[in-house]
Amino acid sequence: MKVLIIDDSNAKITALREVVFKSLNGSKVVVRRSFQKALQEIERESYDIVLLDMTIPTTERSDGRFEGRTRYFGGRELLGEMDLLDYDAKVVIVTQFDRFDDGVETIEFRDLMNKLEQEFQGLLIGTVFYTSISDRWVVEIEKILKDIQSQ
After folding, report:
1. Burial of 1 (0-12, 13-18, 19+ CB in 10 A)
2. Where are the alpha helices (DSSP H) in the chain?
3. pLDDT one-digit tens code per residue, 86-130
4. How far is 125 from 118, CA to CA, in rounded Å?
5. Which fold has domain 2-150?
6. Can you state the angle between helices 10-23 and 136-150, rounded to 10 degrees?
7. pTM above threshold 0.70
8. Residue ranges of the domains in the chain?
9. CA distances from 118 to 16, 60, 90, 113, 124 (A)
10. Backbone phi, psi, residue 114, to 5°
11. Which residue intervals define the domain Response regulatory in the entry (predicted)?
């Protein structure tokens, strides 16, 4: 299976890779760390699974440093782009924030996830709250990945 991880946190990327390789033996994993790089990747390549962070930087320079504003709802924007492209992947949001606030809109994790699951039915298949102090998220992701693999 081909898996795209869209996230800017090195620790979270490493943890997600480990879970993917453990759950989906032989998978190809690609990482994109900004909105623009992720959008370019989605437009040119298809993936079976996308593990998507909600809050991501706009762009990434060639030296790996981030530029532009933080997109507090960047994951929602990318879901919208995937929907417009009729992108055929299973998307799982993996975020470590329990509240999202861009200065205009504030919304709790569960409320946002419920809203997105309704808006992007068929594309968004799950949401996971990531934390480094518990492995509950690992169990949740492993279950989702196993379910996808068995389909």
Report:
1. middle
2. 10-23, 35-44, 74-84, 109-119, 136-150
3. 999 999 999 887 766 666 777 787 887 888 889 999 899 998 989
4. 10
5. Rossmann fold (3.40.50)
6. 40
7. yes
8. 2-150
9. 25, 31, 15, 9, 9
10. -60, -45
11. 2-130
